[in-house]
Amino acid sequence: MSSIFKKILDGEIPCHRVYEDDHVLAFLDVAPLSRGHTLVIPKQVASSLHELTEESGAALGSALVKVSNAIVKATGATDYNILQNNGKIAGQAVFHVHFHIIPKYDEGDGLGLIWNSSTVSDGEILAKEIQQAL
Fold first, then answer.
1. 23, 37, 98, 100: the active-site residue
2. How far is it, in rounded angstroms, from Cα 56 to Cα 130?
3. Which of 77, 81, 94, 133 has the smallest number of CB atoms closer than 10 Å to its CB?
4. Looking at residue 121, what DSSP letter applies?
């Protein structure tokens, strides 16, 4: 099944494009949390970040810097959130990798966060397991 982002990439659905290169498209969110809320998506079709090629991931990283800089210049917002979710229980609603750049103008606008932190009991073991998986 084709996602709304694939339809945007294919030109079936219009968008307000702000940036495009061979690997990435950035456009204004149609239901923004704040003025300038922009989505940055890879042209590679993948549901989660870990499914992307390194080339697509690198292109996304570069585009995030460029587009964030442009949003700051265009809107005057110097604070912003970058949000990216992978999977349903992580809050992903459109199953095509995408990053939200959400400008913050005041304390109460844009994205609200609740950070439920905990402690790491097996940090050394977990770090080694992740290193081995690389």
1. 98
2. 22
3. 133
4. S
Specify the number of domains making up the chain: 1
Instruction: Calculate the CA 25 to chain-centre distance.
Output: 11
CB 80 within 8 A of CB 70: no
Give the per-residue pLDDT at 108: 82
* Dihedral sign, Cα of residue 48, residue 54, residue 59, residue 62: positive
Lowest-pLDDT choice from 79-83, 100-104, 114-118, 127-131: 114-118
User: Which residue carries 């940036």 as its tokens?
Assistant: 19
Q: How many CB atoms lie within 10 A of CB 61?
A: 12
Q: What range defines the domain where residue 104 resides?
A: 4-133
∠29-100-31 over CA atoms, to 5°? 25
CATH number reported for the structural domain that contains residue 90 in this entry: 3.30.428.10
Read off the pLDDT of residues 12-68 as tens digits, 9 standing for 90 and up: 999 999 999 999 999 999 999 999 999 999 999 999 999 999 999 999 999 999 999
pLDDT in tens, 4-13: 999 999 999 9
